Automatic annotation (TrEMBL):
<dbReference type="InterPro" id="IPR021838">
    <property type="entry name" value="DUF3431"/>
</dbReference>
<dbReference type="Pfam" id="PF11913">
    <property type="entry name" value="DUF3431"/>
</dbReference>
<protein>
    <submittedName>
        <fullName>Uncharacterized protein</fullName>
    </submittedName>
</protein>
Amino acid sequence: SWGYLIGDSGNGHLNDKVSFDDYVRPFPNGRDSFFVMNAASQFPRATQLNRLGIIVQGFPDEGPEMCPKLGAEGWTNWWFLPDHPHLQRGDMLDFYDKYVAASHRLAERKPLILAFAQGGRFAVSRARIHARPKAYYARMLVVLSKEVNPQEGFWMEAVWWDVFHPEALQSKTPLCEYPVLGEHVTRGPYADTGILNAIRAQLRGGRW
């Protein structure tokens, strides 16, 4: 089902104008994977933003594209929650370098924006999975199996694209266009009533 609004148990993480059928259609537009990025996080700050199509319905330019057609305007403002799961413990960039980028990691560590599909909803072909050797997955499985609810499990939601696309790591090339991230960000959650009402008002007024 559509949406991801805090406090609504009926949300199913689908973006507006995207259906489950889109995920089971073989090789959509000739591609061997299907991702609809509806969130992004910046590390190490763990600030986040969300695609407007996952929190409000009715955008004329929304659809099953990987990134918003509106570019930077297709996202909420950057927001921050001090108790966000991405921040509980550990060093996400260290995990990314060692286990996700692995042999493709950059020599110099720098802040990283990762676009991802909220809820880990995506589809990949067998060839995509085989883009990494079996040993790569085995090494990662050891880390993810060390306890019942490892911190790394929360980070995995944000890195699935990079796991299956070693030739297109987000640490090297951004996937989408994002709003500028300044020093000051909105205190989350993104689903604040004022934010949603402002977006709906802009829709009614023909802003999009």
